[in-house]
Structures are given as C-alpha cells and as structure tokens.
Design a protein that fits this description.
Length: 165
C-alpha cells in the first residue's frame, strides 16, 4: 500500500497506511495518534476530542482539558463575528491561559500567558485544529519553533480530513 502520511522530523519515522490508520481510529485507539504527535518531537502533549467537544478520545498523561476549556475552543469555531470573542479574550487549555495568535474556521493558535504578570511566556503555546469529526489540541514547549509545531498538527489535520475524519 502507498503511504498516506509520512511524518519525518528526525525523531519519528512512521509510515501510516490508509487502512492501518483507519483501523486504529475505528478501534478507538486514538492514543496512537496522540503518541504519534508527541513522537515527532514538535509536540510535547496532545489531546483529541470529538468535533463537538463533548467526548475526549485520547490525551497525553497530565494534559487534561476541562469541559469549560473545550467549550471555549468549540465556541471559537462557531463564532462568525468579524472579531471573534476568542481573539479579544484569549482561551484556556489544561489550566493555562493563552492569547490568541490565529483564529479561523479550522485552526486556533495561542501563546501562553503568565497570569501573574499578564505577559507572554516565551514561545510556549498550543495549536488546535478542527477536522470533520475531531478537534486536535497540541501543546509545544519553548524549545520548539511554533511553525514546526503548527505544521505537524496541520498535516495530521489535513490527513484526517482527506479520509473523512
């Protein structure tokens, strides 16, 4: 079979075929997807929710997104205002506040804010991508370039959309 997605960031060399990837998803082994994201080295924690945000499918240990936090994320996708609420107020993931860097119908990017001083904490942030049936939430540490993290998550989002997920 031809590879559908090849993630190679010098730390992960995994070739996923359409059938094996879909089998894992259909068997609810979405933990493999989280492990693959983290395994790239561009992401250190991740979670996957259904598109409505009502069910967590998988998450990295210690990276839990509270119900109120996922509601903020889902609301950002349904907000059709010229300036989305999430752009002015920011959002929260796993107990941390993020300033919105990008917010559109598919992607939401944020930079972590120190609550005490209300300023950016360097390059630490999150990349959130909505697909047809899922929401991918990925955290990257300060040691990772934001563009590398975004490309990793967006590529997985592209693949999931291409196979109807």
């Amino acid at each position: 079979m031809e590879p559908i997605l090849y993630l190679d960031n010098n730390t992960l060399r995994a070739v996923l075929t359409k059938s094996s990837f879909l089998e894992r998803l259909l068997q609810s082994n979405t933990g493999d997807v989280v492990a693959s994201l983290v395994g790239t080295g561009n992401i250190d924690k991740a979670a996957i929710f259904n598109a409505e945000g009502t069910s967590v499918w998988a998450h990295s240990q210690g990276f839990e997104v509270a119900p109120a936090e996922i509601k903020e994320v889902v609301a950002s996708y349904t907000d059709k205002g010229e300036v989305k609420k999430v752009q002015s107020d920011g959002f929260h993931v796993s107990g941390n506040r993020y300033v919105t860097i990008k917010a559109d119908d598919r992607s939401l990017y944020g930079k972590k804010v120190w609550e005490i001083q209300l300023r950016f904490s360097g390059r630490e942030g999150v990349v959130i991508v909505k697909t047809t049936q899922a929401i991918l939430i990925a955290h990257y540490p300060e040691t990772i370039q934001p563009g590398s993290a975004a490309n990793t998550v967006e590529q997985l989002g592209d693949y999931l959309i291409s196979v109807g997920y």
